[in-house]
Amino acid sequence: MADYQSCLAFLCELLQKYNRKRVMINENTGLVADLGLSSLEVMEVIEQIEDHYDISIPLNILPDVNTVADLAQKIRDLNP
Amino acid sequence: MLLDKFKEMAAFQAELRDRRLKAFGAVTDEIVSATEGVVEGRRVILAGTNNYLGLSADPRCIEASRAAASRWGTGTTGSRLANGSFAEHQALEAELAAFYGVGHAICFSTGYAATMGTCATLAGPGDVILLDADSHSSIYSGVKLSGAEVIRYRHSDTADLAKRLRRLGDRAANTLIVAEGIYSMLGDIAPLAEIAELKREYGAMLLVDEAHSLGVLGERGRGAAEAAGVEDAVDFTVGTFSKSLGGIGGFCVSPHAELEDVRYCIRAYIFTASSTPSVVASTRRALQILRDEPQLRERLWDNARRLYDGLKALGLAVGPTPSPVVAVEFSDREAAMAAWQQLFDNGVYVNLVVPPASPSTNYLLRNSMSAAHSTEQVDRIIDAYRGLIDAGLVTPDAA
Ligand SMILES: Cc1ncc(COP(=O)(O)O)c(C=O)c1O
Predict the structure, then answer these.
(1) What angle do CA B32, B285, B262 make, to 5 degrees?
(2) Residue B264 burial (CB count, 10 A)
(3) Are residues B22 and B133 both part of a single domain?
(4) Is the omega angle on the peptide bond into residue B356 within 30 degrees of 0, that is, cis?
(5) Range of B327's domain?
(6) Is 80 exceeded by the pLDDT of residue B304?
(7) pLDDT exceeds cutoff 70 at B399
(8) Once rounded to an integer, what is the mean pLDDT over residues B375-382?
(9) Interface check A1 vs B, CB under 8 A
(10) Which of A59, A61, A75 best probes binding to B when mutated, by most B CB atoms within 10 angstroms?
(11) What residues of A are in contact with residue B166 (Cβ under 8 Å)?
(12) Bridge partner residues of B351 (DSSP)
């Protein structure tokens, strides 16, 4: 079981790879609004999270995910 | 503002106009044959259709269509559920079921409606859909409407699919796996034998969209599942009449008797007018030809191999194996657009595919072969690609 803080830490680290705009990545960073991820990149990020935590993230949750915090929360909820 | 979100598209359309690039929505002024036409005033070889068997121009299909229009009129003016079920529709459904050797078939007004409608209806809230990441838009639209939990597996990656089935635990039994026979953009074939094995192991159901493989793969032309020898494992086969059958419309066939009840739950079936009988009649004739003339399939594959080998010999970035869809990938946007234009100027019409319609960030020139292409036409297409290399628009990588 991954807690919220460790999910957050993992995400911030993972997203550095996509940090073209060199913004500060924290809970409030917007995946599209701030990092400018394309839809293809969002799916790439999702796949890496899925591999890391051995979970499947349903597409249904994506409309509710805007910030890093939203995503960390979802990962925590999906983790057995 | 409501319409602000279209600004990006407006800018792209303006760019296309400025460049006078007619790659999207080009107007066909005249059809000379299944493989030749006049597009935007220029006579071209049609190498961007899905007319795999060339049946859109078959005189027998045209005559069947003409006769049906005389007999039934131009339209049904209603849905299959109300006043729009004609004897033609019923006959086509019976013929499709017989062709697939299953008990049940439904016809739809388009392939899009068939795929979207069945995906939206078969799984619902509480169920799971596992779909290939590179699925067609009609599949994505359908699963979104379904209310089911939607999970993607990496394109044709059966290890990834297996992992996701394992993660589902007991819920795998309530899961619909969705794959295509031949993928429309790169022409690659799904690993259906492995997918079928996983489906059995986990007790899930399997839907295969054979849109691009009907009439193209399998000894009888039934598609990728037939070619892989796993038709028994396919619970629902969907497909279209708009490609190898040269008409328009779609279908779903299944060995499950419940399909007859599912029929009355598919909105894209209930709340839309049924296919016009002239189209159904040409489709019936085309299906008969597909069944009786396997030599068309052989000719298609001869052409496909010829084009594939030719482009590969030029050193172009084509897929791993020959297929009736041969895509040449470009990482450079400018080069892809200029290449499309040069091919068109040289009398070859292909599809330009831009992200996100392409499966990656790459641009594609998508070529599709027909049984009706002559050897000379295929060679002219290859020559036109050689011209791209000469013009410095592509750099051969294997040379
Ligand atoms: C895989 C796939 N499914 C469904 C469709 C929809 O078929 P149609 O264009 O006949 O509506 C297409 C083609 O556009 C397709 O490529």
Answers:
(1) 120
(2) 11
(3) no
(4) yes
(5) 2-54+294-390
(6) yes
(7) no
(8) 98
(9) no
(10) A59
(11) none
(12) B366
- CA nearest neighbour of B148 among B180, B178, B169: B178
Of A43, A54, A60, the CB nearest to B150: A60
**Residues 112-131 of chain B whose Cβ lies under 8 A from any Cβ of chain A:** none
Q: Are residues B283 and B349 in the same domain?
A: no
Q: What is the pLDDT of residue A19?
A: 93
Token pair in block for residue B359: 């499966």
Q: What is the pLDDT of residue B319?
A: 85
- Residues B200, B206, B210, B211, Cα dihedral to 10°: -160
- pLDDT mean over B58-75: 98
**How many Cα neighbours within 13 Å face the side chain of B165?**
25
Coil/strand/helix, residue A35: coil
Closest residue by CA, ligand 1 atom 8:
B111
Residue A69: C-alpha distances to residues A8, B255, B264 (Å): 7, 47, 43
* Mutation probe of ligand 1 site: the residue of B52, B139, B182, B184 with most atoms within 8 A of C-beta: B184
Nearest to residue A21, comparing CAs of A32, A34, A9?
A34
- The span from the CA of B183 to the CA of B190, in Å, is 7
Indicate the residue among B241, B274, B292 that finishes a domain.
B292
Both tokens of A6, joined, read 């460790």
Domain boundary among B259, B292, B325: B292
Q: Percent of chain B at pLDDT above 90? A: 96
Rounded Cα–Cα distance for residues B44 and B30 (Å): 10
User: What CATH number does the domain containing B80 carry?
Assistant: 3.40.640.10
B275 and B319 inside one domain:
no
- Examine the residue annotation and report whether B212 is marked as an active-site residue of this protein: yes
Q: B260-284 pLDDT, tens per residue?
A: 999 999 999 999 999 999 999 999 9
Give the model's confidence band at A2: pLDDT under 50 very low, under 70 low, under 90 confident, else very high. Answer: confident
Would you mind telling me the total number of residues written for chain B in this entry? 399
Domain at B325, CATH number: 3.90.1150.10
